[in-house]
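[job 0412] stage=complex_fold ligand=zinc ion status=START
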Amino acid sequence: MNKVVLLSLLSLTVALLTSCNENDIEKRQVTITATMPSDDLSSSRLGSIINGVPAADGFNLKAQWKDGDKIQVFVRQDGKVYQVESPSRVSDISGDGKTCLFMVTLPKSVNRDKDYDIIGVTGVEAYIDGADVVASCDLTRVGIDSSDAPLLPMWFACKKSSTQAKFRHLCAYEVLYVYNSSESSITFRHSGFEVMTPWYKYSDKIVLTGNSFSGYEAGQTDAQSNEITIPAGETGTIMSWYIPRFDVTDETPDATINNARLKAIVNGSTATSTDALKAYKSIARGSAYYMQATWDGSTLNFSNEFCPDGNHPHAIDLGLPSGRKIACCNIGANSPSECGDYFAWGETTPKTSFTKANYKWYSSGDDHNITKYCSNSDYGIVDNIIGLQPEDDAAYVNWGPEWHMMGTATINELLENCTIEWTKINGMHGYIFKSNTNNGAIFFPAVGWYNSGGLNYLEDEGAYWSCYNSPTVRPDWAYVLSFRHGDLGWIDLKSFGRHNGCNIRPVYVGQE
Ligand SMILES: [Zn+2]
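[job 0412] stage=complex_fold status=DONE, emitting structure tokens
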């Protein structure tokens, strides 16, 4: 036999072996359709389902598959678990990012004629521990660049004959915005809520078993975390994930957070927020809870717990019977705890001096010589206009036609449908109005009001104009939501002289 023939025979053998092997791989391949968890909860709760891609309005993220996503796959048969050699890459992503395909090559040790389960994990590393598949899950994974949120931990389990992988979230999420108002850069490491009764488990791993999973409980000081650097005057974002404290199945109810303080490590030292998170807040697997805190150089404060992000104003749904939503902050304020601007009633430009002489609707400073909004000839020119017209409505003029000043009906609705608590937020006293029917809450800072002598009652009283004057009382007065804290205090609809300086909290009326 010459060399040429020998080489040909060898080639033929190699070719036969190769094709045999390829055939075998093909038989062991299963193509599976992967679907993202549903986003249904996003409309009914504070926060929303998140995964992956930040939306323009902050972290109202949409669950979407992206090119490059990988799925680690395991196969369980007869009590043994096998890992599929290399992670599956997703392909054929649908236009809305909700579904994709991926291929699994069953390990050779798996008998294809018998039953087996497939378990897949994405977003975190997973490995085999005895007869379990374990997802490695550090408590706090990432500081987030706004453009590059991570794929969050998800998993699925399916049976041999299924070609559908319905992914589910492993954790609940907390997105924390930290504003550094100090004069120097900080390193910030978030270590979670400090609560009297733990409401969650967090762990460094999650055991996936059948159709449910459980986390290992860990001490509250065990928190792992990535560190972010936040320059002076800037905001950093850090996300944590939590495993709600129960064995998790799809039927699991929400967990709630109450009386929590925020614990963090700033420049290597432990910092705890001064203000407790008082409201009961729901947090569920697959949902995100948004929070803002400010580091002022010595103390960590909750900025607020009302808004989904820092882009104020927000229209807060308190579940009022009328459906009206209330602004999260005052006109002129940059956050719910700031005082904002003071206006005389029916004026649209803020002032810091409020006298009868400089009031727009008194002729020559005479409150018995009213030039508009008068229904009694003893007080001026009668026009019988009661409510402010749009051009004299400071909310309409300063924020646009979607916003109006509160009517007396709205003020009464607030008083009747909310639980009211005196509190301190970000160093400012005031009343928090918590909805009796949903998670909504707004804060009215007690930032006083102006009379001709200047600003009075700062930290003790608040006064928020309605859009109605009070013709049956006196047309030179207008209705105001007024409160004062303490034993002799009140919170009620009252009438003030129109030339005084009060705050304005707009109502969202939407497109009309
Ligand atoms: Zn807001």
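Residues 307, 312-314, 328-329 surround zinc ion (CB under 6 Å).
[job 0412] exit 0
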